[in-house]
Design a protein that fits this description.
Elements (H helix, E strand, L loop, with lengths): L1 E7 L5 H14 L5 E4 L13 E2 L6 H8 L3 H14 L1 H9 L5 E5 L5 H4 L2 H10 L4 E7 L1 H4 L2 H18 L3 E5 L7 H12 L1 H11 L3 H15 L7 E2 L8 H13 L8
Amino acid sequence: MRNIYFIGTAGSGKSSLVSAFQEWMTLQGLDCITVNLDPGVEFMPYQPDVDIRDWVRVEEVMRDYGLGPNGAQIVCADMMALNAKELAETMETFKTPYALIDTPGQMELFAFRQSSSMIVDTLGREESFLVFLSDPLLAKTPNGFISTLMLAAVTHFRFSVPFLNVLSKSDLLTEQELEALMNWSKDPDALYGALTDADMSPSTVQSVELLKAMESVGMYREITPVSAEIPSGIEDVYNAIQQSMEGGEDIRSD
């Protein structure tokens, strides 16, 4: 089973993209399951086939341990690892080639805790692919674009599995904003120009140095625009996954 993790900041549209991706795959005759790893989510636009809330729930941890929402989220993030084996066994009962895994709304609860690495290992690191969702409202400014590149790079470093950076909710941008952003994505010099044309304040100087550092270590990569609302770009994401994990070949339902 290929495990496709969707990771991004709160509000970046992870659940919506998982739902749209599932619908697209079904239309293509591709079988998949959806997996929810957010123990505190109250609403999802899809019905998960496997749900971490069957083992761990934020409201129950708040009640049992006398914690507030933030403390309970942290405890739940660690408790998920204790249930990783049962989670994996449940997923294995589905005879399907793909699992679309929706991670917690607060990105740091999954991306920056050791428990998440344990979950990835238990589910199968060699069968994992990470889709990082960059928020368009942050990425549409030069400094914001560098910030989202850094978040994506750090997340990739944390997990060290095949990775794709996508611009989620791209339909929220104007045509001019999207064109400029994609130009930055493909051409670092264009981003240098956008940064230095505005001003050379200390924060801009820092952004330029960060950009140089990312280029030097190979962290500067193109971003793929997607939209769950239209939908668009989903086939591009699927093709990137197939190229990475299957050498470009499809795994289709029998």
